[in-house]
Design brief:
single chain; elongated; mainly alpha
Length: about 80
């Protein structure tokens, strides 16, 4: 089996599932968990936490844009 095949497939699946944070960070988190001796459950928990936090951040940014608050705040700055 090609050693790159699992990562190519994983990248493809994560893109289909629309999990951009996990796709971007799973290698980093895997290396950190391996170094720290954490198991697969800890690895998945860390990845899911990062994905959730980033989604919450993007949702908050969308709500601010939709409310027009960024434009109103700019008026007070000048």
């Amino acid at each position: 089996m090609d050693p790159e095949r699992p990562t190519v497939l994983l990248d493809h699946y994560l893109k289909l599932l629309k999990l951009p944070t996990i796709k971007r960070e799973y290698r980093i988190v895997a290396a950190a968990c391996a170094k720290e001796g954490h198991d697969a459950i800890e690895f998945l928990a860390r990845l899911c936490e990062r994905e959730c936090l980033e989604r919450e951040q993007r949702a908050a940014e969308r709500r601010i844009r939709a409310a027009g608050l960024h434009r109103r705040a700019a008026c007070f700055i000048t």
